[in-house]
Amino acid sequence: EAQVTQNPxxxxxxxxxxxxxxxxxxxxxxxxSWYRQDPGLGLRQIYYSMNVxxxxxxxxxxxxxxxxxxxRNFPLILESPSPNQTSLYFCASSDHxxxxxxxxxxxxxxxxx
Amino acid sequence: xxxxxxxxxxxxxxxxxxxxxxxxxxDSAIYNLQWFRQDPGKGLTSLxxxxxxxxxxxxxxxxxSLDKSSGRSTLYIAAxxxxxxxxxxxxxxxxxxxxxxxxxxxxxxxxx
Lengths: 113, 112
Hints:
The complex is a heterodimer. Chain A has no helices and 11 strands. By secondary structure, chain A is mainly beta. Helices cover 0% and strands 50% of the residues of chain A. Chain A has strands spanning 4-7, 10-13, 19-25, 31-38, 42-51, 54-57, 65-66, 76-78, 87-94, 103-104, 108-112. By secondary structure, chain B is mainly β. The mean pLDDT of chain B is 93. The interface between A and B is medium-sized, with 27 and 25 residues.
């Protein structure tokens, strides 16, 4: 089954404790991206990657890092999480950004205390 | 900067009604437009993608139209069902490899 898998689905942690949210897709897609969703602000893109070793900033990249060492994986790293990064995070993939529908994971709800 | 607006923010209809959801965007130089559905606690599911050269796309009871020159798209849902209850979002990229800009969605409730 074609899918985008995120882990963990839920995480409560404390300020400053480094964390990684993993994202993996089994569709051999080139394009992957991370979004955060906040009430009243909607979905905003954090980072995206057009292929292995190619990453670029989205609209709200501050406080986040990503890497794309393999085509199927695109982890999101919070080196020093802060409470304003409490949010619902989604990973997505597609054959390429514009021409094909994007497939989304089920989301990761992060709470930073 | 591209801005996407969806009206109404919430909509409640009785089962069986036909309904229209609206999406407008400020910059008409879009590559395509995509409609998604989001169920509570879930990710987004792509419903329809309309390329900039197209006027509409259909999938089952769903029909999406695109008028680039006026910066508008509509999602028409025929014979609505309680299972259609969800939040519907539209999104546009400027070009092939630019970020998607999302509207804030329309929360639809179909009452049995």
